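Teaching assistant's notes for section 4

Start the section by putting this record on the projector. Ask students to predict, before seeing the second block, whether LemA family will look compact or extended. Collect guesses on the board.
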Amino acid sequence: MNKGCLGIGVVIAAIAVLALIWGSGVYNKLVSEDENVARAWANVEADYQRRYDLIGNLVATVENAAEFERGTLTDVIEARAKASSINLTANELTPENIQKFQQAQNELNQSFLGRMNFLQENYPQLTATEQFRDLNAQIEGTENRINVSRTRYNEAVNQHNNKVRKVPNNLLANIFGFNPKAPFSSVSGAEVAPSVRDEFNKG
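Reveal the predicted structure now:
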C-alpha cells in the first residue's frame, strides 16, 4: 500500500472518529434535554395532583358543615374527575394534547376557585374555621406552585426545541426520533377574569 492510500485511510478514519464523537455528544445532549422536559412535565403533573387532593379536602370540609348543601359541589367533583382523567406522557406533549389537558385544568380551576370564593362570601361560619383557613392557604400556595412549574416546563421545552430544530443537531434528532415538544399557552378567553357568581350558578 502506498503512502497516498495510507494517508487517505488515516484521514477517513480520523473523520469517522470525529463524526462519532460529535454524534455521541449531540445524542447525549438530546437525551438530557428530553429528560429535562419529562422531569419538568412530571413536576407540573405533581402540582396539579396536589390541587386534586386539596379539592377532596374542600369537599370533606364543606360536607361537614350542616348549613351547606352538598349539591353545590357537584360541578367541582365532575370537573375534578374530568381533569384527572387526562394523563400525558413525555412522548405525548403535542400542541393538541397540551390544549386538551389545559382546557380540562382551566375548567377545574374556574369551578374550584369560583366556589371557594362563593363559600367565603356566603358562609362566614364555615370560613371562620381553622380547617378552612388552612385549606385556603394551601390552595393559594398550590396555585403559585403550578404557575412556577408551568414556567419551568416552558423553559425546558424552549431549550429542547432549540436543540432539536437547529442545524446540524436536527439531522440526528430526526434520525433518533427526538421531536419538538408543545409548551403551555393561555387557553382561549383566559385573558378575561371569570365571574365568580356566574361560575357558581352554572350548576
